[in-house]
Amino acid sequence: VPTGRAVRASSRAEVEAAFDELGAPHVVKADGLAAGKGVIVTSDREAALAHADAYLPSGPVLVEEFLDGPEVSLFFLSDGDHVLPLSPAQDYKRLRDGDEGPNTGGMGAYSPLPWLDGRFGSEQEFVELVTGEIAEPVIRQLDAEGAPFIGLLYAGLILTDAGVKVIEFNARFGDPETQVVLPRLVDPLSELLLAAASGHLEDHTRPAFADDVAVTVVLASEGYPAVPVTGRPLTGLREAEAVEGVHLAHAATAESDGGLVATGGRVLNVVGVGTTFVEARDRVYRAIGEIGLEGGRHRTDIALRVAEGL
Questions:
Q1: What are phi and psi of 133, to 5 degrees?
Q2: Quick one: CA dihedral 63, 66, 71, 75, positive or negative?
Q3: Which of 34, 100, 262, 278 has the most CB within a 10 Å radius?
Q4: Same domain, 79 and 112
Q5: Is residue 123 part of a domain?
């Protein structure tokens, strides 16, 4: 399974040696769960060292080779023997427009990815490639080791000049990519999940997806991702949901005094579905414009390039 080189470092000296070996930009990952914020990618050596210093007291960190190219998320259902792919999506991990600022848990996403056609012939050919070279070998190997994987395999991929490479795996649906993949799913999700859980995926054909496109934009609290300000009221949600083709996916909200308040960093997703990216973006940004949250922030460039045909 193709991926970048990695060095496990247990001390600051080992981190620095890995930096010298792999070069910049530096990629440092916490070895454990970190709410999607355990990685730093930077050419600033001191910033990379500071990130490593923050996690080294808890154990080793990974220093990885920097992989350059667009990222793609692709989910697979597995029953331990077989896999069925869903539709690819692209996530926006940086906080600010233009992919600036710190990494986050994800500030928006879109699906499908029409630009894959120019690289692989078609999106379907890309899915076939990843299924055969990444998902199926992983599932076969886990089964051979006596640890069959049953559930949802999330492959985080990067399309480099040297081919498709894995940057991460998760054993769950990915946020916010799921919010744009599932609205396009034609087949009942419950049937697919049951087939995976009961070992009958081979009885199912590849899941079908609508030609519609979906765009989601995350509304985040002031201070996110470092120290988000919580407890502030949300307004305009009913007006946002009244926009055609839009629904809201709540992530960090709670009822308070008859209304809703933000309780975390990424507060909610505004999801827009349309026949074109221009239509879906128009809907999602009209809807998010109706929502009030003091200090709230969101990116304005989600799916902009694909809507402009770039």
A1: -95, -15
A2: negative
A3: 262
A4: yes
A5: yes
46 and 99 share one domain: no
Question: Residue 46's domain spans which residues?
Answer: 6-64
The Cα–Cα gap between 89 and 215 comes to 10
d(CA 241, CA 235): 12
Question: Taken in order 55, 61, 67, 73, is the CA torsion positive or negative?
Answer: negative
Of residues 181 and 31, the one with the higher pLDDT is 181
End-to-end CA distance of the chain: 30
Q: Confidence band (pLDDT; 50, 70, 90) for 310?
A: confident
pLDDT digits (tens, 9 = 90+) for 258-294: 999 999 999 999 999 999 999 999 999 999 999 999 9
